[in-house]
Write a structure and sequence with these properties.
The chain starts with a helix and ends with a helix. The longest helix is centred in the C-terminal third of the chain and has 41 residues. The chain folds into three domains: about 170 residues, MFS general substrate transporter like domains (Growth Hormone, Chain: A, Up-down Bundle); about 55 residues; about 210 residues, Growth Hormone, Chain: A. By secondary structure, it is mainly α. The chain is globular, with a radius of gyration of 21 Å. About 80% of the residues lie in helices and about 0% in strands. Keywords: Antibiotic resistance, Cell membrane, Membrane, Transmembrane, Transmembrane helix, Transport.
Length: about 475
């Protein structure tokens, strides 16, 4: 029986026997606040991009780099920093990342040129790559009992998922009330508080068995992900041109070489035997669709509300709050569901339902009365999105021993970040192919939104069915062993 099986069985058998200590609660609060802030940083400037461009002199075509530079560093370096944390200490990496976040937020808030802002966003992406897997690894090592651990991971999933949607809303509010610069400045007090409090309430943790760091593997996986995310982003914005196609080919080559190198390296960054575990492989595959699909849904909801219905950004924000509420509800009740149903079984079912409740948007029209059913179905979609995210996180972090927690959480976090980074560009490529170039009418844009949503939702349903078929056998085996 694996650790994941044991965790599920123990939690089901004694859901309330173990309670969190006061120190654990304090650690949970500060780590979850940090996770929420890092997730919000990804999208906090999205709404304010036009104001940033006007203020600093960005051209319209170069605005996307404000988001892309962050995404490249956050998604490309997460696994490396997660593994480094196993060696040098996860709390140390967390604290160093928070220091970098503090400095980069100050630089971003004071930026007076495009170059200065992009440097700040690059540093913010690196800080996210360091802090996010370290915080998750500290959670999994601080909460070793199945019950508290599942609750902590459930709350972590809420913070990571809702942070993206709330970040977009927060960025709009800060920009309207104060200035886009406060989207950076607001990070500083939270980061300083984390730097002070974490050493007091969180114990240091690192792998008991230390070996050399796999520098070739780290370089290959980082460059491969950089190239892949850059290529996918390019396809979504400009189509499959020479630069985007070349980047995708380079990514395939680099990741193929990475696999070959890791197969022959004793101290591999990610041992191939870990990647071959069905829990790890299919769990991280699920994360790409869970987070990629949800961020794409958020993006196209904003387009529908503002461009098709002609309503304000505030209304779009209220619709997105419906998604946030669904995620919070699922994060609250999800651990109780997993006390009764195996995460392996629930992962596929949740992803199928997440995709299925995206599809009612295909019947949305240009009449504003569609907002009510849209909010209702997206609430349910968000509920199952969060439940799937919780299942994925429990599986991904419970299938390896404590020495490899930094690697496991790094992989899990990286899958989330990659999904967020490529979800919008991929679905936007479908949208762009439908509406074509030049000025489009609201009706034409609605057709593009319908097609994009259909592709995203049906992809989630298909992958969810695959996961259910593959992982339900392992769930049954676990049940028979523990019976």
């Amino acid at each position: 029986m694996t650790t994941a099986d044991a965790a599920t069985t123990a939690t089901a058998a004694s859901p309330t026997s173990v309670r969190m200590t006061g120190r654990q609660v304090a650690a949970l609060v500060v780590l979850l606040a940090s996770q929420f802030m890092m997730a919000a940083d990804f999208s906090v400037l999205n709404v304010a991009l036009p104001e940033v461009g006007t203020s600093l002199g960005f051209s319209t075509g170069s605005l996307q780099w404000i988001t892309t530079t962050f995404a490249l560093c956050a998604a490309g370096c997460t696994l490396v920093f997660g593994r480094v944390g196993d060696y040098v200490g996860r709390r140390r990496i967390f604290t160093a990342g928070m220091v970098v976040l503090t400095v980069s937020s100050l630089v971003g808030g004071l930026a007076d040129s495009p170059t200065m802002l992009l440097v700040a966003r690059t540093l913010q992406g690196l800080a996210t790559a360091a802090v996010t897997p370290a915080a998750l690894a500290l959670l999994t090592t601080a909460f070793t009992e199945p019950g508290p651990r599942t609750r902590a991971l459930g709350l972590n999933s809420v913070m990571m998922s809702s942070g993206f949607s709330v970040g977009a809303i927060l960025g709009g509010v800060l920009t309207d009330v104060f200035s886009w610069r406060w989207a950076f400045f607001i990070n500083i007090p939270v980061a300083i508080a984390a730097i002070v409090v974490v050493p007091i309430v969180v114990d240091e943790s690192r792998a008991e068995q230390r070996s050399r760091i796999d520098l070739p593997g780290a370089l290959l996986i980082t460059l491969g992900l950089f190239a892949g995310i850059y290529g996918v982003t390019g396809v979504g914005e400009e189509g499959l041109d020479l630069a985007a196609g070349g980047s995708l080919i380079a990514a395939a080559v680099l990741l193929g070489v990475f696999w070959a190198v890791e197969s022959r390296t004793a101290d591999a960054l990610v041992p191939v035997k870990i990647l071959k575990k069905p829990d790890i492989a299919f769990g991280n595959l699920a994360a790409l669709f869970i987070f990629g699909g949800e961020t794409a849904l958020i993006f196209f909801t904003g387009l529908y509300v503002q461009n098709v219905l002609g309503l304000s950004s505030m209304v779009a924000g209220l619709v997105l709050l419906g998604i946030g509420v669904g995620q919070i509800v699922a994060g609250t009740v999800g651990p109780r569901i997993l006390q009764k149903v195996s995460p392996r079984t629930m992962l596929g079912v949740s992803l199928v339902l997440q995709g299925a409740f995206m599809l009612p948007a295909l019947w949305a029209t240009s009449d504003s009365y569609w907002l009510i059913p849209l909010v209702a179905t997206q609430f349910v979609n968000a509920f199952f999105s969060m439940l799937a995210a919780l299942c994925f996180m429990v599986i991904a972090t419970s299938s390896v021993d404590s020495d490899a927690q930094g690697m496991a959480t790094g992989m899990a976090t990286q899958s989330q970040q990659v999904g967020i980074a490529i979800g919008i560009p991929l679905v936007s490529a479908v949208f762009a192919a439908v509406i074509g170039q030049g000025t489009v009418t609201a009706a034409e844009e609605l057709t593009g939104i319908h097609t994009a949503i259909a592709v995203a939702g049906l992809s989630q349903v298909a992958v969810g069915l695959l996961l259910w078929l593959v992982l339900r056998g392992k769930a049954r085996q676990a049940a028979s062993v523990t019976a």
